[in-house]
Amino acid sequence: MSRSERSPLLLAGLLATAGVAHFAAPRQFDAIVPRALPGSPRTWTYVSGAAELALAAGIALPRTRRAAALASAAFFVGVFPANVKMAVDWRHRPTPQKATAVARLPLQVPLVLWARGVAKAAGEAPGA
């Protein structure tokens, strides 16, 4: 399997793993839901987990890959405020935890670019 064939499957795997984690260990995700959002943090945790699972499924299927990858790029931008909240909330924690929270911030950029690259490749695929 070529690198271009693996890339969407790896992205789908990342999203699926994150989506499952939202249901398996929701408390850690509840803590980073911005307070400005209406409703319960747990609801947002479950909604975002379900969205990640749906995006993973869409990327895994060649027929829906392009649209799902573009939606994933938007999703990665949309969850950025949660990463900012985590970095702010963890600023007084021990250095390894603080570093993890801060490292998540620039990680969103390659995730957005990866999703856009998967979308572009899917748009160029024969039969797309």
TrEMBL record:
Pfam families: DoxX_2. Residues 1-23 form the signal peptide. Keywords: Membrane, Signal, Transmembrane, Transmembrane helix. It comes from the Bacteria. It is found in: Membrane. The keyword Transmembrane helix applies. It is a multi-pass membrane protein. PANTHER family: DOXX FAMILY MEMBRANE PROTEIN (PTHR36974:SF1), MEMBRANE PROTEIN-RELATED (PTHR36974). This is MauE/DoxX family redox-associated membrane protein. It comes from Streptomyces flavalbus.
